Structures are given as structure tokens and as C-alpha cells.
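Sample intake sheet
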Amino acid sequence: MLVVGLMSGTSADGIDAVVVRVPAQPSLETLGPVTHYHREYDAAERAAIFALFDPQGATAGAICEMSFRLGEWFAAAAGAAIQAAGHETGAIDLIGSHGQTIYHCPPGAPGTTTPCTLQLGEPAVIAERTGITTVADFRVRDIAAGGHGAPLVSYVDQLLFRDSQMARAILNIGGIANVTVLPPATAAGRVPLAFDTGPGNMVLDWLAQQLSGGALACDLDGRLAAAGDPDAALLAELLEDEYFRRPPPKTTGRECFGAAYAARLLARARARGLSAAATLATATALTVETIARALEAAEEKAGRIREVIAGGGGTRNPVLMRRLATRLGRVRLVTHEAYGISSQAKEALSFAILAAAAVRGEPNSVPSCTGARHATVMGKIVPGRNYTALMRRLFCEDT
């Protein structure tokens, strides 16, 4: 199938869209070429999304309206990606859309009574505007099966990157950092595991905005962090957070490491008299250290990790990547580009592959990674104008 994948991450900086030909058995060798398109949110759009991250202030009307607005933006991004790939819309079989998470409350989260998650970006709007069958709202089925609804890309990581001989970790440094740890395929009894390690770029972005008086949207190229040294005492205090000690499976988000968390970090830094550079250096060290410690703990189940393949916006921060490479020491750290995949496109690509499995009725979750009771077919299917022809081709012509 020729599939569009759509992703808007925790940082909510824009929509990544890919167009890729997904075979029945995807692998690095069998995937078709990947065309990537990025649609950046403007300041007003981003502010409107961020307003919904506060569950006390977000109204039902605002959430409902934004879901439809995001559906329009996702549909437009899909159209732009299709055009960039040189295809007609009618040639596309399927769209897989992650949507925009505005609330995520997995099992075991503080104060949880009913585990739940909410992604916006109405798939009916996407299907209506494009005419293409759309799969979306993937996380809820895993949560219904007792899982955390994340990390979902573990299914794709296993297909593309599991090695027969060595243990690998597939790292995504987005707003939140998450990792899939893949034991060697030949290691009997060892299964993949995955979890969120903690803050990725989200805290860094918030601090850069605050410390620059709004002049910076992020610590561009890690320049602020590069000019300072981490404060060891504050870093040690931050590492005492209960989340970092919690065993996987586990997921987190803005509810734990959003603006309120970053504001507390900034207040503690100022109380210690830290400069802006030292504050960013300490927050960068927190991202690095929590990733490294998580990988070290995972080796008990996965075996010695020989390679970390990194993606996400954090790979564009050379200071973060250098410090992570130094901290990992003996472990080879590369980006997805070493395997022919754009780091920025990886998660959108993942949802194209997840959607292709869903429409075939194939389980596309990894219970050992999400904590679910069993594997499920994740994703809700909204038929487009091509739906009948697509089903006939998938399930009738093959027989």
C-alpha cells in the first residue's frame, strides 16, 4: 500500500507527514522511498494548542473545535506531502494519523482512577478532505487492554531494527524521550521493552523561552547549554523524582514534565543563583542522565546494548548529542540517517506502518513494551471514498 503517515508530537511544533510504500512485511530492505514534508505551526496555532494542555482551563468547546481545526491541518499536510512525492491523491491507499496528544493519563500515574488518553485531529475531516481511508486514535485500544498506550513505535522498531546478534536501543528525543530496547533476535526468552525515560526537549524549550524573554523558541543548537556547566546539586535533586525510579512499562507527558515542572526547576535554579546558561546546562544534563540510566537498567533484561539509534528533534541539538555520546561511552550512538531514514520523519513513518497493519487486521502492538494484557489491533478506521476498492484489493484479490 502507498501510505501517508502523520505525526504531531509532544513539543507541538508542527506536523510531520511522510509518503511511503509499505509492503505486507515491512523491513528496512522492503520499504519504499520515504518522502517527508513538515508543516510548522504558526505562533497563534501553537498557542491555541498549548492552551489545551491545561486540563483546568481547557473547555469542551475549545477541545472540540481544535480537534476539527487540527483535522483540517493534518489533511492539508497530507495533501502537501502527496504533492511533494509526485503522486496524485487517488494513488494513495491509506492515511495513518497519530493526532495531537493533549492529555495522557496511563495506569499508575499519580491520581489515576481511570486510565485514559486523548489525541485531537478529527480523522473524519482528514478522510472527507482527502477521500482517503484514514486510521487514527491508536493509543486508546492499548489502554483498554491494560497498557500505557505508549510507546507505540516499538512495533515498528522491532520490524526495522531488531538484530540477530546484538542488543540495540531505538531512542526518540521528542518533547518526552522514549526508548525501545531490542534484545538480539536469537536471545531465547528475551522480549523487547519500551518506555518513556523522562523529559526530552520539552523542559529545555520552556526554559529557553522564559530565560530569553520570549526571544527564543528553543535552545538553538544547544548554545545556551554549551556556555554553562551543570549544577551537580540541582541535578542530583532532580534525579530523585519518583518517575525515574519507577520500573517499566511506564509513560509520561506534560502532566508530569510540562510547564509547571519546568517552572519549579527554574525557581530552584534561581534560588541557587544559577545563570541562564547553567540552568540550561543542568536541564540538558537531566535529559542525558535519565536516558543513560534508563538504558543501563534495561541491560539487565536485554543484554549489553551495543548501539543506540536516535531520532526526534533532540538529534538537532549537537550539545545534547555530544554529551549523550560521552555519557554512553562504549555504546555506539548514531541517528536514523545512518540507516537511510530521516530522524524527523521516523515517527510519521511509524504511523504509516501501524496504519497499514491495522487495515489488514494485524495486531500492531507489543505488550511487553506497553504493558497491555495482550496484543491488539490499534487504530480506528474511517472509510474514505477508496475504502471499498481498498478492501476488495486487500482481502478479495489475494484469495
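Comment: The mean pLDDT is 96. The two ends are 17 Å apart (CA to CA).
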